Amino acid sequence: MNPLVYILIPVHNRKVVTLTCLETLQRNGDLARYRVVVIDDGSTDGTAEAIQSQFSQVTILKGDGNLWWTGAMVKGMEYAYEKGADFFIWLNDDTLPLPNAISTLVDTCTQRQKTIATAQCYSSKDKHPPTYGGQIRGTWSLKPICVPENHCQSCDCTSGNLVCLPRSVVDQIGYPPSQRLPQCFADVVYTWEAKKRGYQLEVIGNAKAFCEFNELEQNWLTSSKSILKQWQRIKTKKSNLYPSAHWYYCTKFYGFLSPLVFVHIYLKLILITLIRWLVPKYFLKRQKRMTKDY
Questions:
Q1: Residue 292: left (phi > 0), alpha (psi -120 to 50), or beta?
Q2: Tell me, what DSSP letter sits at residue 132?
Q3: Domain count along the chain
Q4: Same domain, yes or no, for 206 and 223?
């Protein structure tokens, strides 16, 4: 008997992006193979109406605009759990699974008890290194790992772009912490907590997807975005610089070192601000290219 799998996609005001994701699932056969649930968190751009018109088999759960990523994912997981789901698939709508990526994750979790499996995401322009996937805990931050085809590798936590989780994880640790981590860090903290409860976290080299790296999360020193935009991110729950979320993440990963890890990212931002004021950007980009070529 095939497992009951629910693909959960949180969305907000990205109609074209969301429809492209669903079109990809349709081409891959995943729309027919699995149950698909879109959690529309108060979109005002006609996202829900377009989905209903083009993909009538997709279930739409609606939010009021205050769910953010974590609350939307919790809403979807609660719905799927009540429907008897054996596995949950976390899928961001800007992530486009390649053929067989989702079935590969499901097969992995079916064959191995207490396993959470993640795909590797790549830029459509440059397939290496991965943009999102599995990570290991470093001294000051999480370090992404790269797993070659036909291999898998254990990790400490995963980004939430394309992940398969068994039903049992809800029974053991509940749902992701939507109140403490409304947007960023919820995926990595939740999977880290699962690992501490005995779950094996695996990055599957043959499970691939396309997802561009968030421009605001790229190298601050050479980013095309102004340094002012980086500082403005501190005020929004959507950012990994949001202080209360960043502090909660630090306490979960670093224990007594939490205060040092917490201030580290803000001190880094201050230092990079000074460098970008003092050093011409073209020189910084030139140095980056030279280092890459070397």
A1: alpha
A2: B
A3: 2
A4: no
CATH number at residue 168: 3.90.550.60
Shared-domain flag, residues 204 and 222 = no
Asked whether 124 and 131 are in contact (CB, 8 A), the reply is: no
How does pLDDT run along the chain (294 residues), one tens digit per residue? 789 999 999 999 999 999 999 999 999 999 999 999 999 999 999 999 999 999 999 999 999 999 999 999 999 999 999 999 999 999 999 999 999 999 999 999 999 989 999 999 999 877 778 999 999 998 778 899 999 999 999 999 999 999 999 999 999 999 999 989 998 899 999 999 999 999 999 999 999 999 998 754 555 555 666 777 777 778 777 777 888 889 999 999 988 888 998 988 888 888 888 887 776 554 545 545 544 443
Strands (E) across the chain are located at 5-11, 35-41, 59-63, 87-91, 96-97, 115-122, 134-137, 142-144, 152-154, 157-158, 162-166, 200-210
Work out the end-to-end distance of the chain between its first and last CA atoms, rounded to an integer number of angstroms.
Answer: 53
Point out the domain boundary residue: 181, 210, 239: 210
Q: Are residues 122 and 203 in the same domain?
A: yes
Q: How far apart are CA 137 and CA 156, in angstroms?
A: 6
Q: Are residues 190 and 105 in the same domain?
A: yes
